[in-house]
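Ticket #367: bound-state structure for magnesium ion.
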Amino acid sequence: MKITGLNVFQVDLPLKEGRYSWSNGNFIDVFDSTVLEIETDAGLTGYAECCPLGSAYLPSFARGVRAGIEELAPHLIGQDPLNINGINRIMDAALRGHPYAKAPVDIACWDLLGKSTGLPLYTLLGGAAQDDVALYRAISQEDPDIMARKIEGYAAEGYTKFQLKVGGDADEDIARIRATRAVLKPSDLLVADANTGWTRHEAARVVSAVADLDVYIEQPCPSYEESMSIRRRTGLPFVMDEVIDTPATLVRGIAEDAMDVINLKISKVGGLTKARLMRDICISHGIPMTIEDTWGGDITTATIAHLACSTPAEFTFSATDFNSYGTVDIAEGAPKRVNGRMAAADRPGLGITPIYDALGTPVARYS
Ligand code: MG
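RESOLUTION: The complex was predicted; output attached.
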């Protein structure tokens, strides 16, 4: 099989809540997502989606996805998409870094591998480990009482895991954690995700002030070293996210006991190939994962579902159904949340079919 063409679509994803806010005053009203279609000489077509969380979250941005694909496309035409490690070596040789721009190419090749073998991706990623996965709900940063009310609403929809967006004013963040923990059941899981938003002294104050509560602390400070400083000061369970972005940083974190859980975002690490490697390293070292991505719609959600459903339940800390946050459907066959859980499709590959009316005409075609 050979790659004959790459078609790039741009789609706006508005939010049901209107706005998503996180640390340091960052917010998004409409997400800019990229859908990639890879055509082959076998008549099979592979799909993927990449949607950065704006331009200020990770070193990634929406137009960078499309510029990266433009840079990579001439190196990919004529290559065998089923030789996925080979495709990754070609991309890494042609463009240093920019894992998020390579992720949709890698994922679309996995979709093609599934379609060519007639197997769902969860089978190819290691086999079904669970029928469905428990989801978390991200709670946009607002006043503590508003966040507590939103958590009650999402708990009523079946969610049992919640991730608070903190990383703002330390005193307000302490109030946010206390107000939301108070409305949850003891069995509900609460994560306070600062998204690198605290300096060390702020993080130290927060972890000390909530030390009596059942709450996880996620990525308190910008750097690995600053976050490690907080890790050493608190007995609260600890999640690393933004700074665990390669197999190498994961191995360092495991060796130095930097975290109890990681947040594994598929596009952050460059696609399913590297995410699967990191997933398996985590399992072999007893590190559960939140399996998700920076953002996305139906196709990202389907990709998450396949990786998560091929991961044992005890290592799937949570996962994300991004397609329930937005107002626009971009693919048929994507997972739909039921009682706070989602399942991967049994159809070949990702098991999705794009809705071309939603995607519009391609913004770029390479052949
Ligand atoms: Mg996080």
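RESOLUTION NOTES: The longest helix spans residues 99-117.
TICKET STATUS: resolved
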